[in-house]
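Can't paste images in this forum, so I'm doing it all in text. The chain is below; anyone willing to post the predicted structure tokens underneath?
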Amino acid sequence: MKKPRWTPSEDQIIRDFWEAQGGVKAFLHLLPGRTQHAIYCRAEVFLKLPSRIPLNRARHSFVSSVTDDLLKTGYCGTTYEIAEKTRASHQRTRTMLREGHGTKYHIAGWKKCGGSSNWVAVWRFGPGADVPKPLPKEGKENSHEYRERRKIRQGKVNPFATLVSQVTDGEKITPNGKYQSRIFKEAA
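Text version of the structure:
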């Protein structure tokens, strides 16, 4: 179904309410047959009106102040950690940190979270140079680590063998499982 062309009176209605408070949904009744998306496209693309701040930013404005307060104490964390401490949503926290990246916040480091092999940014308050993201491991290194883990699982390698030899300091273990002499001796 083809929509009718926009009329000059509809364009004037959009211009009138574009600067007003509230969402576009509140003015949909003035433009019957037009969707919210169509109104946004008409206003921003064809009429060249400035972008409106979405309502969800106004509803979550507390996130910025709470996050700033937390990070000003010297705390550094990932978006998930910051969201948990501030009790804000992860998505809003991530969006806010990215919008302030380079001016209000910078990346102080990287860490792996949740057992995944992906690096996650650790954020800090204030402008500064970002720590570069670590390079991924080469295939050879991944293969070597995999083979070592497989040997340990199969019982072919004891990962604690070096530690045991350091603790026992070369002492022998008797068949009943006890040491032949003490490891630590009291000073006389």
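The helical segments are 8-18, 36-46, 55-59, 61-72, 79-86, 90-99, 139-154, 161-168. The chain has a mean pLDDT of 81.
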